[in-house]
Structure formats: structure tokens, C-alpha cells
Amino acid sequence: MQATRSLSEYRKRSTLTATTVFLLPVFFFILIFIIYPIIDSFWLSLHEWNGITSGKAFLGLENWKTLLGDKIFFKAFLNNMIIVVLSIAIQLPIAMAIAFLLDTGGKKLNFLKMIYFLPMLMSSVAVGFLFKYTYDPQFGLISAVDTMLGGQGMVDVLGDPHRAIFGVIAVICWQFIPFYMVYFLAALSSLPVEIYEASIIDGASHSQYFWRVALPSMKGTIKSAAVLSLVGSLKYFDLIYVMTQGGPDGATELMATYMYKNAFTIGKMGYGATVASGMFIIITVISLVTLRVINGKEEA
Amino acid sequence: MKKVIGKTLSAALALAMTVSIAACGSGNQSESSSSSSAANTSSAATTTTVASGDPVKLSLWHIQTTEPMTSNVKADIDRFAKDNPKYSVDVQVMQNDAYKTKLKIALSSNTAPDIFFSWTGGSMNEYVDADKIVDLTPYMDKDNYKDRFMDAGINQATYKDKIWGVPVENTSVAMFFYNKDLFAKYNLQVPKTIKELETVCDTLKKNGIIPFSLANKTQWTGSMYYMYLANRIGGADAFKNAAARTGSFEDESFKQAGTIIQDWVKKDYFNKGFNGLDEDSGQSRTLLYTEKAAMTLMGSWFLSTAAGENKDFMKKVGSFAFPAAEGGKGEPDAVVGTVGDNFYHIAKTCKDPEGAFKAIQYMIDDTAVAKRIEAGRVPPVKGVKVSDPLLQNVLDAVQKAPSVQLWYDQYLSPELSDLHKSTTQALFGLSKTPDQVDKEMEAKAKELAAKK
């Protein structure tokens, strides 16, 4: 008895040492590259600094007051919300449909899996340039198709303040559907074959299997996909930056592009940091609330 | 217990997913700079020589990424190092945008290169105010070295009555470039007044040709029309005074400029969808090459860009200055542009400013000037001779110009410049009236002036 206890204690202690040793380097890097920058961002947000001078002027909460009344930031937040809603509403169902079709298709459709995954392999900058030309009102693909269908051509997408955001969202969906497709495909193929066989034997049709069996058992995957998409959309930056730079006249401004513009283009580092910190708070709160709502039932 | 762990974990997860935004700005910029520095390590020229005196290491950053300019700069610096064996220079080439971000960070952390450049205007003034660059007046006055340069170039490098930079690279002014064949086909003459220009546009429109090609996602492109109109209507002083706060952005000339632009947009003088097109990817030039559009108002770098993209098209290209406004206060020969483009500064942290200045001189000595002309540039020195008639036009325009207005977006402070660019885009997009735009500009200018 005495011996076993000390053995288990010994084991506990050695495990503790091992975990500490293994986790320390990670913790160290997180501390330097994540925790410290966050704290520093908040600290910077209390200052006015043009990014060049060696001294920063302490402003207190002045920047935060400006942020609360900043119409452009509010507009950017709304744009982010449009992306969140449309991303989840468009990307996840389409990705799920493709994944299910590919899964039922089996090995025959392997080459389609490859093809569908291609957009994900391209860098966002390349995708942005590609679609910039696609949307060209004079020479672009969209205008050409419109002409073929008997229209006037000259479809202006990115230059129109009402359409530009949707033009970019279409590209975002094109780029990210493959990601969720693979995500769902992995989940589908990890469902035990027995379940499928059992439901078919029980007389379920393919669609019944999908709606009543496969979908419910993938609840966890769908939830995490939704959260991934949510957070990704809230901090979205690259395609907008390449395709519209937040224009025309702020119509596609996002929180992240607005932060970049303030900090690095205009040279208001302090206010840029305020926008970044504001984003941090907004995204954290939204994510936590979403997680709570999603997991609410199980935890209660 | 499990629940608590689960909750903590999910909270931590949410945190971890969001935190990357904090690093988002810097992450993006380090990505771009790392990609450019990767491309550039090969072109970084380090010349080391054994020498008399203590060896001095200098560093230089520039953005001449296109050949033959990259080799030209390298050759200039190599000649300097050869003649002055005491020095070795580490030259780094990078892309325009990466340069801006990198330099900003380097300056704030006092790790700036000894020699770097700006486009003068707002950013240079900021460096001066932050005490980051060396006053070059004594060096420029020595043996009247400054007389080598076009006066407009020296004016541009002057702030608070001192000279802070050496104009080196190029003289570029905005002018109209047009397709001579199309003008001949429709019997059109080069317009001398804005009214004549509008008649030309109307004729072109009637024949299904777009008068002006414009890609205005880039924003400074549309600004060129605005700058010239304001200049022709209100004279060079209207803007200068507004910027210096002795005048106002609500001046009548800005309102008129805005009104004319909106009138032109409504008359479809510009190609459709210009606010979504990107000048840097050549979306405006394609319209000219395919003869769908006849003219463009662009900086004179248009010549070398177009020559590189479409040699055949260059045979058809002609140029003319922005026409005069009837009854306007502006001189019709005044130009908008830059005389020097890249102005080299010496950082306050430089240990040997004298040597650094010598190095800069090698970039604009006679050999360097000859090479720059060969590459299709117009170096900002007096008595340059060019053989290309189109370049000669540019040179003539600068030499007879009573005043050179630096691009607004470089002249103004970064914050005001950004507002100018986005409001001009709104003006072109008809989403703001000229009055609204002027009011916004004036309010921001006041706010910034009050802070100083």
C-alpha cells in the first residue's frame, strides 16, 4: 500500500515535470508573440503616436471615446457582420452538400476532390488579382457572360458602393468552401460504416440517412466550423485589402482594414491600436457568447 | 470540475482564435517585407575593401526594383565604394509598400539605414519635425552644389528654410497622354482650353470612344484631375494657402473643380466602373491599348510603363499639357508633379553624414545622370538633354513651368492626404457633393492644425 502510493505520487510528480518542461517553450513563445503584443496594444491605445517619434503622448481614454463615436468603425463592424452571416449561410451548406456528394460518390470522385480543393491552395493575393480581372467591367468574365446572355455588359461590381462588398464575399466563399468541404468530408468519412449500413438495412433512403443520421452525428464538427467561420470573418483582411482597399469611399471597409489604414497608412499608431483592441474585445465577446449559446444545452 | 475545465478550455480557444488580430497588422507587414527581402538579398550589394582610415559601413535603402534601375543604383554605389575605399555600403532594394512600413518601424526604433529617401512633402516634414534626418543645407551650399539641380527640385526638398534631401531619381509631371491615330481619325485638335477639351470628349463619345481611361481604386489617379482643375481655376496659391491654413479648402476653386469632375462623370467621359479598377495592375492602360479609350491623365512614368508593356502602342502616343480654364486664375503652364521623385536623406543616427552625402552624390553625378536618361528618366538636374521627343515634352513642361505643385497626397500630412484621396473617390463616384468634400477637408485640416 505504502509502496504503491509513493509510486503513484512519484509518477504524478514526474508527469508534472515532464508536462512543465514540454509546455514551457510553447508558453514562452505565446507570452512573447501573443500575450505581450495584446497588452502592449492596449497600452498603445491610450497614447497618441505617429509611429516615428521616439516619444508617445499619453491621452488616457481619448482614443476609446473617438472609437465609440467613429462612424467608419461602426460601418466596418456592420460590414464584418454581413460577411459573418453570409459566410456561414453560404459556405457551410454548400460545403456540406459537396462533401456529402463526394462521400457517397466514393473513390470514383477522387479527382473532383482534388479539383474542388484547388482554390484553397492559392494565396489570397493571387485570388484577389484573379477576380479583380474577372470583375473588370470592360474586359472581365462577368461582363462577357452578361453580354452573352443578351445584357449590356459593363457590369460594375467593385466600383459600385452597394455591390462591392457582395462581390468580395462571393470570392471569399469561392476560396473557403473547399476548406469546409474537406473539414466535413473528414467528419463524414469518420462516421462508422456500420451506422450507414444499419440505416440502409432499416430502410432509410440516402436523403433520410443524411438528414436524420449523418447530420446529427456531425453536430460537433458543424459547430466548430461555424465558430471558425465566425472568427475568421470578424478578423477578415486580405481579399478586401487586395481587391478594394476598403473602397469605394469606405463601402467595403472592415475592422481589420480600418486598423491597418490607421496604424500603417495614415500613421495614427495609437488609434490603430485602439481599433485593434476594440476588435479584440468585440471578437472575444462574440465568440464567447456564441460558444455558450452553442454548447449551452449540453453544459446546463 | 470537468465543466469548469471545458469552459476554461473553450474560453482559451476563443481567445487563441481571436488574438491573431492583435498581430494582424504587423504580421501582414512582416510577411510583405520578408517576401521582398527574400527577393532582395541576392541584389544586396556589399562592397568591402581594405582601406586607409577606419572602415565605415553605410546602409542604403531604395525601391528601384525594376531593371535597369536596380543595377544602376548598384553601379553608382560601387563606384563610390571604389573611389572611397574606406566605405562599404549595404544596399537593400524593396517594394514600394514594404519600404514605407519598414522605414516607419526602423525610424521609430532608431535603426533606420544611414541613407534612405522620401517623396518629400508631408512625410519628409514629419521626419524633420521628429528630428530623424540631417539638415543637408551646408552640404548643398558647399561649392554651390545645389545649383546643379532644377530649382523646383530644391524647392521641393526645402522645409523651414533648410534643405533636407537630394533630388535623385526622376522628374515626373502629370499630363494628358492620347492616341494620335484616334485624334486624326476623328479630326481632333489638341485642346488648349477646358472647353475645347470637352468638345473633344463629346466628339469621341459620339463615335463610341471613351474619352478618359481611369482606374480609381488607386485613388491618386482621380486626384490628378482634381489637382489640375483646382490649379487651373484657382491658381497654385489656392491649394498652397489651404494647406498652410492661410486659405481654405472651402475655396471656390475646389468647389468648381469638384463640380466639373462630377459633370464629366455624369456625361460618361470616363470608362464605367473606374472606382473598382486598379491602376497598378494596368486596368486603365488596357483600355488605351485596345483603343477603347483615347486619353489618360497620368504621371510621365506612363511613357516607360507603356513602352515596357506595349511597344507598338507607343508609336501612337502623343502628349499635351492640361488645358487652361477660361477665366481661371491659374497659369496654364503650371504643372502638377515632382521634380526629383526620390529625395535622399541622411538619418540622424548616421555616424558619418559626410561620407553618406558623398555616396548620394554618386547617384546623381554625370555618369549616373547619363544612365538614368538612357533608362527613360529625366533626372532633376539642370541642362539635361533627352533624345526621346515625348520625354522632351515632359522636360519642356517642367522647364517652362512657373510653379510645380507636388502631388496632394504627398504634399499633405498622411492623415489629410488619406482623406483627400477617399473624398476624391467619393466625388468621382457621385456619392458626395463637392460641398460635402470641401467641408470634410476643411474640418480635418482645422482639427490637425489645432493639434500642432
UniProtKB/TrEMBL annotation, chain A:
Residues 77-292 form the ABC transmembrane type-1 domain. It is found in: Cell membrane. One of its GO terms (cellular component) is plasma membrane. The chain crosses the membrane at residues 21-39, 81-102, 114-131, 164-186, 269-294. It holds the Pfam family BPD_transp_1. GO terms for biological process: transmembrane transport. It comes from the Bacteria. Keywords: Cell membrane, Membrane, Transmembrane, Transmembrane helix, Transport. Its main location: membrane. PROSITE patterns: ABC_TM1. CDD domains: TM_PBP2. It is a multi-pass membrane protein. Belongs to the binding-protein-dependent transport system permease family. PANTHER family: ABC TRANSPORTER PERMEASE PROTEIN, INNER MEMBRANE ABC TRANSPORTER PERMEASE PROTEIN YCJO. This is ABC transporter permease. It comes from Ruminiclostridium papyrosolvens C7.
From TrEMBL, chain B:
The keyword Protein transport does not apply. InterPro entries: Bact_solute-bd_prot1, SBP. It comes from the Bacteria. This is ABC transporter substrate-binding protein. The lineage of its organism: Bacteria, Bacillati, Bacillota, Clostridia, Eubacteriales. Keywords: Signal. Residues 1-22 form the signal peptide. Pfam families: SBP_bac_1 (PF01547).
